[in-house]
Structures
1.
Amino acid sequence: MSAMFRSFSSFNYRVWFIGALVSNVGQWMQSTAQSWVVLTQLTDNDAAAMGVTMALQFAPPLLLVSVTGYVADRFDRRKLLLITQGLLMALAIALGVLLLTDVMTLPMMYAFALGFGIVAAFDNPARQAFVSDLVTRENASNAVALNAASFNGARMIGPAAAGVLIVAFGSGWVFLINAVTFIGMGIALFLIRPHELIPRVAGASRGGLAAGFRYVSKRPDLLVVFLIVFLLGAFGLNFPIYASTMALEFGHGADGFGLLSSILAIGSLSGALMAARRDRARLRVVIFATGGFGVASLISAFMPSYWLYAGLLVFIGFAIVTTLTTANGYVQTTTDPALRGRVLALYMAVLMGGTPLGAPFIGWIADAFGPRVAITVGAAAGIIACLFGLIWMIASGRLHRSERRRFLLTIDETRSLTVVPPVEPAEFSDEVAATTPIRTEKKRLD
């Protein structure tokens, strides 16, 4: 099996991948329909209302982070995912029925967005951490990248299909079809062999979320990753606002909006597959890809036609998925397994929690000054995030002049380890002394 698909050697991961792919197609269909309903059915092209909807949907991961990470570490993730997936399916059915019966209102849509956000706050960290339960540690980065490939492969199908369905049959049917796709994930979770899951670390639930905060606070590299994804999440990743308002500016409807999402996915899928080929996730890739996202987004804001704008989306999709997939893989593979769920909950809270702050602001800018100005603000966030990362690399000594060639810069891959005392020293005995490893700081893999 090629290095790109090495995680498929695990039966559990193959089953998970297929179920996630089916569910992701439905999720992208629903996301496209929800944005279009708010923009055109419940309001008169009000991008600010879209921003509020996104804020309500992405606020819970931030507000509930003290609970969700602990839950992901403490309870059986497979059973937890069965519960969250069932709740998401029920919400999709209810929303679809209300749209088909023509009783949906904007306040009701806000309530549903909040409901989706609350359930997703528990679903996301459990799902991210569950990937590490399916494959060995050396394949974790590859599994994360293939997950991103599944997510973005579905993005090539879902939005375009949603646009066609909205025009042909109405938006309500899109939500009902999404509800059906949750069955695929449910079947996959039932087929997974529990005895083949990677054993959980004993004592992983001790310390609560505070242990996750303390761990991250002592990892400057993780703090840099969190800062980058916060800026992107708050201002750069508001694609439903950017694409829908640009589609209207170019005179296109729901099908044009859906097509833009699918074109973005072409680059996104390429970025995910490239990440899957790498042997490990590197922080420098996160930093440089963020800069690429900012530059490509800035250029796209000046495109004079629909198809030229769509062409730039391929590069934007490639850059943003390279950034997020590598960042996710870096966090997963360099974090203490006992704290992985809590650290991932913090990561998802930072990534998604920026949206409640940035989305209403970006929506207001799109309404007041036009979508091109809003896109420029998102591009500036990407460039600023890249500059923060470069400054840290220089200040930490990782980026410096090469000793061999005078004008060549080089980036250090690793830094020296520092031995620290155990956090909870055990009572001394010859047996313990002979078998207990000395605790060290986690080796920086970038």
Note: The first helix runs from residue 11 to 41.
2.
Amino acid sequence: MSSPARTETFPAATPAAAHIFTTVLSHGPLTRLEMARRTGLSAAAVTKAVRPLIESGYLVEDADAGAGAAVRPALGRPATPVRVDGGRALFIGVKLTGDEIIGVLTDLCCRILLARRVPLADRHPEVVLAATADLVRELLTEADGYGVRVAGLGIAVSGDVDRAEGVVRYSPFLEWRDVALARLAAAVTGLPVTVDNDVRALTVAEQWFGAGVGLSDFAVVTVGAGIGCGLVVHGRVVAGTHGVAGEIGHVTVDPGGPRCHCGNRGCLEAVAADGAILARIRETGGTEVSDTAEAVERARQGDTGAREAYARAGNAIGRGIATVANLLGPARVIISGEGLAAYDLFAEQIREAFTAAAFGSAARCDVQTRPLPFEEWARGAAATAIQSFINAPA
């Protein structure tokens, strides 16, 4: 197993250098002139920041990038594009669900090299931590074959997560409260650990490498076991002062609706999450339904109660997305999550409710679906580890 005892420091001595590196990471290869244009920095500042990144091997000049040749400006020598060397460092990302741990090994460009899944028989923090450590050790052993050190571990957890403190304040699916996960995971793995809310982690990956690249304002809404929302405003993933920005799952959509696990009534999550849909089918149909797969099958076969439950959920999700569009005016809302397996059953209701509730030009927001398996959520966790590595104080 790779020994993580010696941790390398990323050579970005200033915020400007980190900004330049992340810009190349998302948009590269870029010439120095293009870096200056995208970051708003002077040519001299770009040159100063790029030099140590090239010397340390994190950036490489790539004369073959793009059309296959260096770009020649109007005057002077050819401008050679610069790109990130993805093989310069490795990262591990872990997504925790209520019954499974998904782990990935990625390179510096967050490309998945390996993926592993292990079942979770017990949700007690000690059991989950031990199983996570075993999975991380397995991925560290695999990383030996790449000859590059693993520079960080990201862990994504649903619920109220304080990334700055590395604490899971409350995770409904794991039934955790006030678990100092970053400190505990660092102790058993020896790696620098970043812990974040799973939807925010997924949003980081979408901002840097996915459907949010190049957008200064967008949102990721996830549907499935819960309803989550990640927000990017003016180019930054927003967590809010208390770390719960974007919790549209707990926006009230029906004051007289069913009780939510948070204690309130009629939350979006209490109407539109998988468990809420199952409960609605049992309530209206008077028959047992074992799981989401059976509910979807019944709805597709024309079961009235099942179809009504999904239509009700779609209406609530559409209004929730309209709330995001009205408040923040994002260019795009990306719908993802395991609940997309049933998207055909409520897509029409989402569109209709969104159109009806979106105010004015907010209705012009590009709403698109993006099915992403849990390996991509684990990749999001790795993206947060990369983010922490790049922005760590020197």
Note: The longest helix spans residues 304-328.
